[in-house]
Design brief:
alpha/beta; 14 helices
Amino acid sequence: MPANRSKLLRRGIAALAALPLLTLAACGYGSESKDDTANATVAAGAKKIDGLDSVKIGYFGNLTHATALVGNQKGFFQKQLGATKADYQIFNAGPSEIEALNSGSIDIGWIGPSPAVNGYTKSDGKSLRIIGGSASGGVKLVVDPKKIKSLKDVKGKKIATPQLGNTQDVAFLNWVAEQGWKVDAESGKGDVSVVRTDNKVTPDAFKSGSVDGAWVPEPTASKLVAEGGKVLLDESTLWPGKKFVITNIIVSQKFLKEHPKAVEAVLKASVETNKWINANPDEAKAAVNKQLGIDSGKELPAGVLDPAWKSIQITNDPLASTLNTEAQHAVKAGLLENPKLDGIYDLTPLNKVLAAEGESSVSDAGLGVK
């Protein structure tokens, strides 16, 4: 690997890890969920699973983590874990969640594909496994319609992405390259100026005119639309079948080996939650928003929540082939060394749960444990 690319990779990962969290918990990684109402209900006579006092679950306060938000709010995880407590921590940055997983501060987490790939490759395939899917879609290029009227007008403009090397940053850099434009991945300078901006700050930056648009996940995209932005491109239109992984479920390999019943219980709850979400979209949307309010102190207004919710597909399928494609996009951008992803998936527990529910199995695209 060339020295400059290795240096770039290290800087990209360092920049990701340096991003601030929503709040700091005592463990130093994420904030603890404040809602104990749904989780407090434990069936009489319930027993601990694998002898565990708790299973520590991490997720982000994003709509693309709806499974975890609803599973928390409606008590699906606690129901399956019995007398073992579902203990939640909230994160705002993938590297921080990976660090928490590696340290044992969480056991299982909902996370985007880029942090999962980075975490797996940095540990030489020893830290984690992807054990399920959760969501597809929910990413858009939103622009100021006064400055950008067509896709070709993006050239020469300032476009925000959430983090250097994060999933949306990689997707935008790849799209830029496909237009024949050049951008230095590390600095963000070139035919387009890529401005790495935290999602919490992006709406204000857009409103002030310091950026002309943003390639961002929901609900940030819909927040920009509420500020007068226009959706110029939905990323789902760039993928076969309009599906691509935006959220995975990961587990530490140590926890998976030592507590398979607990992992299976969480996956059973995830499948149950996803089934409920897809059968009750309006109720699920309300549950997501309620948990977002509990976790962050503020619910989303209907003008933001409604369009954002419509663009996300909830699924058990990890869409493994698209994860491999996204990893190759990062390689092309110079943000990732050519990764060895063999063994990143272990979908055996999920497929066992799906079979018991009478549902079709899902594929690891040849990247599963042998």
